[in-house]
């Protein structure tokens, strides 16, 4: 009936062991499961109450069994409880690694030196120190062979490799961390939730100047292919973030909108507004923008510049033919 440890040690150890296992197996993202899921708090409370109940039951059983013992058995029980538990193997290993002589055997290693009653012991180096010294020798031999004989990687190459890996990791992180979006790493968002959020931002901040359908008012027309400061997701994002032309352009929205919101509204404009027909479109401003990095158009297709030129030429040809018929 001897307990190896008191109840005030057993209960916290078991409780925190269960708590650690719960946090390991329950997926709660960046937060602790006990914070993310309130039911986890109830679970841990029940675990704690059960552990306390088990200790109370065991204590009651032990007390009942103790009352059934004879007086001699009770005395042996008290004596056994007074004995302290020892880790015999660990204690022997510690003494062996320490390598010191017990006090009663110091006479075997005492030297003849005597300085005012102070005697010197001829102790050997502790085994743990000797083993560590041997380990450093082995490590040194392996190091010299690897880096000096076979010219393995050096500190500079290791540093450059780690920096390159860190840059790749940063770029991968930026792709999913929308709060770190900028004009250099922005990509067109096509997810329905992002476009819906972009529409909400557009309706709350952009309608006053560009109209609900993007036809333009105080601001330029967003439905055509003409852009004052360049098209494409990077240029549109940069225009929204940094503002338009000095003195007469759009304000810089980076002080008002988050990078994620600017990316969403930029994607919404390019996906849902550009190319649509506005009710009262404003005259096109700027130049037709062509993405230099876009793949070449297939044969027979017409670029926006060529299409516009054909539209400008077509009415003139129609007028000439009409004049010819009249004449």
Tell me what you see in this structure:
This protein has 327 residues and is mainly alpha-helical. Among the domains are: 7-81; 192-291, Cytochrome c-like domain (Cytochrome Bc1 Complex, Chain D, domain 2, Orthogonal Bundle). Helices cover 57% and strands 4% of the residues. The protein contains twelve helices and four strands; from the N terminus they run H-H-H-H-H-E-E-H-H-H-H-E-H-H-E-H. The strands form two sheets. Strands 1-2 form a two-stranded antiparallel ribbon. Strands 3-4 form a two-stranded antiparallel sheet. Strand 1 and strand 2 form a beta hairpin. Helix 10 (232-242) crosses helix 11. The radius of gyration is 41 Å and the shape is elongated. The termini are far apart.
What's the short version?
With 327 residues, this protein is mainly alpha-helical. Helix content is 57%, strand content 4%. It has helices at 7-25, 33-36, 38-67, 71-82, 88-98, 127-149, 155-176, 192-205, 207-210, 232-242, 259-273, 304-326, and strands at 110-115, 118-121, 226-227, 287-288.
């Amino acid at each position: 009936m001897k307990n190896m440890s008191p109840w005030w040690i057993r209960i916290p150890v078991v409780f925190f062991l269960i708590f650690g296992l719960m946090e390991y197996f329950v997926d709660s993202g960046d937060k602790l499961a006990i914070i993310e899921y309130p039911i986890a708090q109830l679970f841990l409370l029940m675990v704690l109450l059960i552990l306390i109940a088990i200790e109370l039951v065991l204590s009651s059983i032990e007390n009942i069994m103790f009352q059934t013992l004879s007086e001699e058995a009770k005395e042996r029980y008290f004596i056994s409880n007074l004995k302290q538990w020892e880790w015999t193997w660990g204690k022997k290993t510690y003494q062996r690694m320490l390598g010191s002589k017990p006090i009663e055997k110091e006479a075997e290693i005492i030297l003849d030196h005597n300085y005012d009653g102070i005697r010197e012991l001829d102790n050997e180096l502790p085994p743990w120190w000797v083993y560590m010294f041997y380990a450093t020798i082995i490590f040194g031999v392996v190091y010299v062979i690897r880096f000096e004989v076979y010219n393995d990687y050096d500190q500079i190459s290791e540093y450059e490799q780690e920096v390159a890996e860190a840059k790749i990791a940063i770029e991968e992180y930026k792709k999913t961390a929308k709060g770190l979006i900028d004009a250099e790493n922005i990509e067109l968002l096509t997810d329905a939730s992002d476009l819906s959020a972009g529409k909400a931002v557009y309706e709350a901040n952009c309608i006053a100047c560009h109209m609900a359908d993007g036809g333009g008012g105080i601001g330029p027309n967003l439905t055509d292919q003409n852009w004052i400061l360049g098209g494409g997701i990077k240029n549109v994002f940069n225009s929204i973030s940094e503002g338009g032309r000095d003195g007469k352009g759009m304000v810089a929205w980076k002080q008002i909108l988050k990078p994620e919101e600017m990316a969403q509204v930029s994607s919404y404009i390019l996906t849902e507004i550009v190319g649509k027909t506005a009710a009262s479109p404003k005259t096109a401003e700027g130049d037709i923008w062509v993405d230099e990095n876009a793949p070449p158009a297939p044969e027979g297709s017409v670029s926006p510049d060529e299409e516009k030129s054909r539209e400008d030429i077509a009415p003139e040809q129609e007028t000439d033919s009409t004049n010819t018929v009249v004449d």
